[in-house]
Amino acid sequence: MPRIAIRHGRLGDPGPGDPAAAAGLTVGVEEEFLLLDPATGATLPRAAAIVAADPPLPPGAKLHRELRLTQVEAATGVCTRARQLREQLVAGRRALAGSARLHGAVIASSGTPVLSGPSTSENQDGRFGDIDRVYRGMVADYEACGCHVHVGVADAETAVAVMNHLRPWLPSLLALSVNSPFDHGRDTGYGSWRMVQQSRFPGAGIPPYFPDLEAYRAEVRRLADCGALVDESMSFWLVRPSASFPTLEFRVADAASTVDEAVLQAVLSRALVRRALADLSDGVPPPEISGQVAAAALWAAARDGIDGEGVHACHARRLPAWQLVDELVAHVASTLDETGDRDLVAIVLERLRRDGSGARRQRKAAAAGLPALLATITHQA
């Protein structure tokens, strides 16, 4: 959900100058889940009770409320290895599922709900109340869920420089993650209806090029002064630097259908950051892309995911989505080798080639009826 920039303490405590963060090694994941009625599949507003139950989690991991009480977030601690991250994600899902069950709900990992409950809005104070006041009907039933990845960097200036190098690759990260084909009981025809919903917010999508940190901050101030943002701690770009700590937050992916797909997003995001750091060190300039073509590439990824054509953001032409994914993997091959993640990426990508995206799997299950679909997206303890 669009909200205040991440406080890095939610993911652990490596501070400014931490060697692992400076090397682009630390990684953490925030997974957003829907809370569903196990009988009807409609969303249930049980987040406050589930978070208050405070189920046991791995060190550094936390549960948090989201804008709507039908959603909850599980954040890992700071990790440096894919196996460690996977263990924390599994533990977080298990703890959350168990707590949800005690409150008559199940958790679902889907970018949007198949069916919403009769009312998902409530009167709120504080920051959530400010968001409701500013964005009104846009967020009254906003239950979109993402898989957010945080990668450590040395400082905010470096974060902005790295961000410039990431822009062409964000559509492929989305294409791999599409997992939200349904909205209020209808098939939207899109792989990621969540991304369509997010595109309604001012300044959403792939960030523009920024020559330096001051230019980035000036643009955020400008959007806040225009009333498009609640304040300067907020932005809707799909990758952004933390306001307070040395991290880059990737907000592009739908809620991951499986733990392995969440890990895939994490290791690819980290590899992209590490490749960008190497390019910066070598004096390689960021690729030049048109903002309009970047928007077209993101829209194509949201529509068809990995199951159709995408748009090459640099060459401004259509290509098979899998060809664009293969180009991304080739781009980060050396950094995947550095962290020992290349085999993991190959295994998960092969599974996606065989079984299709989360959106395709949801549609296949829906053809067998609502119970089959719910079994596909929900997680039990």
Automatic annotation (TrEMBL):
Pfam families: GCS2. Its EC number is 6.3.2.2. It catalyses: L-cysteine + L-glutamate + ATP = gamma-L-glutamyl-L-cysteine + ADP + phosphate + H(+). Coiled coil: none annotated. GO terms for molecular function: ligase activity. It comes from the Bacteria. Keywords: ATP-binding, Ligase, Nucleotide-binding. Belongs to the glutamate--cysteine ligase type 2 family. YbdK subfamily. HAMAP family: Glu_cys_ligase_2 (MF_01609). ATP-dependent carboxylate-amine ligase which exhibits weak glutamate--cysteine ligase activity. NCBIfam families: gshA_cyan_rel, PRK13517.1-1. This is Putative glutamate--cysteine ligase 2.
